[in-house]
Every structure is written in structure tokens, then in C-alpha cells.
Amino acid sequence: MDKQDQSHKKSYACGFAGCTSVFNRPYRLAQHQLVHIGVKPFACNQPNCTKVYTNKSHLDRHINSIHKESEIDILYCCPKCMKKYANRQNLKRHIKVTHINNKKQFLCDICKVYFKKKHQLRSHMHVHNGIKPFRCPFCEKDFVTLYEKKKHMKNHKTYECEQCNSKFNRWSALMTHKKTEHRSREYICNDCAKVFKERSHIIRHIKKHKPKALKTAFFCPYEKCHRYYSRNSNLKQHIRVKHEGQTFDCAACGAKLSTKAKLKKHIECHSRPKLTLRIQKTLETGRKKRKDENTLKTSTALKIAGIISQDIEEVIISPSENILVNC
Fold this sequence. Notes:
Largest sheet: 2 strands, antiparallel
Radius of gyration: 45 Å
Number of helices: 11
CATH architecture of one domain: 2-Layer Sandwich
Low-confidence stretches: 313-327
CATH class of one domain: Alpha Beta
Helix content: 25-40%
Structural class: alpha+beta
Distance between the termini: 145 Å
Oligomer: single chain
Strand order of the largest sheet: 1-2
Shape: elongated
CATH topology of one domain: Double Stranded RNA Binding Domain
Number of strands: 20
């Protein structure tokens, strides 16, 4: 083995439990161990920037790409997919992850499972070594993965009802509680027994039963217009239609409607099939004369009852006066 191969041999392993990282330089190992103890000594000195890094090269790259203004805006383009990046390091990482390491190459020696990224293998190794690095701050229960910890943390979150101070573990349970316990489906007026579905509607309705209550009126601000309304929304609609000329016009017939709902209902009239009017015929327009004119007519009810015309009192119809005369 030559001197160049020995220099690239990774012989400096991380001593922290559950970490399988190895390096070919001791200073890289020391720099890596800062991650485990949470120390990031390289902080950005730019105003209003709180970024910190464990490596000075990462800090320099941050300053050059974010804070440093260059005369020429250089973009690094990927030769395979033509994606553009602000610096060379991001382009190298993109090529390595997307185009070179597109296969799962990190192998677990115990269960022979491949992973695409190194941190995925590192998290997987906790399953074999029994280390649970993620601890719940409430019950101090340990978990193997961060996902399991976050899922467990939802059990400690409670949702409290504002009206009865009841607590629930799920937001959906709180909503069900409010609908069943604190929300009435119907609001009935005690004076006139009128039913409302919304609480705000019955509050507005109750004011009508109070004769001494101060009723608010919204008057039209335009001169020579004496219209007023009980709601501000109705006044706005009046001004928009009558004074500003903002109407909803029908594209088919040009009719002008005051609201969008009225326009929608008007358009439905155009889509309905047209009804043909039936014109009744008269003697002048070709109606035939009745064959049984001036004759006694027996009703269907009498026929069903079995009463014939001879049993009925004789009736003579006077053709001149068109009235019934009894003999």
C-alpha cells in the first residue's frame, strides 16, 4: 500500500455511543465531535443574522452566498439536469446525492439493509445497539427515532374547553364536546316562539320585541335621497346600485340586477326550455259546434247511481235567455 492510500485511509473513529462515523484526519474527528456536544463556535457577525456553524469553511460559504455582494452574479449549473446553484459547494452536493449516489449504498452489517443516506444508517443502528437517544421531556421516556418521540409528544398535548375547563387529548374530541354539550341546534324566541339556527340571528331578532331599545338606522349620505336601512350592508348595496351604477348585467338580454344572487337566478330563466302557449279556439277561429247542444245532459254521478233521465224532473232550456226553466 503506497503512501497516498495510507493518507486516505479512515482510521479515526468517533467514540460516542451509537455513532459509526470515521475520518482520515484527527482534526476532522475533533470537528465532528462538536456536533454531539452541541457546540458551534463559528457565528455569523452580520447584523440580524443568528447563523452558527461548527466549521469555518461553512461559515465562509454562508457569508459569500448570503451577505457578500458580487459584481457578477455567478450561477453554477449542473451539466446533467441543468439545475442552477449559487455556489460550487451546493452544486457538488447536488451531483453527489442526485447523480452519483442515486443508489442505496450504506449497508447495515447486522441486518443487511441498505440506506441512501448516512444519517439514516446511523439512526437505524440504534435498533441494534439498544441506545435510545431521544427522550421525552415530560415523562422521560426514551425512543429510538425522532419520529417516535414526536408521535409520543402528542399524547402530552391537551386541548381545554373555554366554557367548562374540560381537557381532551385530541382536538377532534374537543370539537365533538363543544357541539354536543355547549352548542344548541335551535335558538327559540321566548316572545314569539320563532326558531333560529344561529345565536347572532336570535340576538338581532330579540331587539324587535324591546320597544324602548335604541334602533340604529343607516341613512343614505347622498343629497335628495331619503332612504335608510336597518343594516349597513343593505345601505352599501343601495349606494352601489342606485348611486354608483354598479349592477350585475346579464350577457344574454342585458338586464341589470342588483345582486349576484339575483343575476344567477335570472340566468336560469334563459336556460329553461320555452313553453308554447296554447291558444283556445272559438267558433270564429274554427271550433266545431256541440252535437248535444240544447239537450238535457245527465251527469256521470247520476249514471253511476243508476238514475236515468226519465226519473229527473223535466227541464226545458230556453235558448233565447240561456236559463233553466221548470215546467
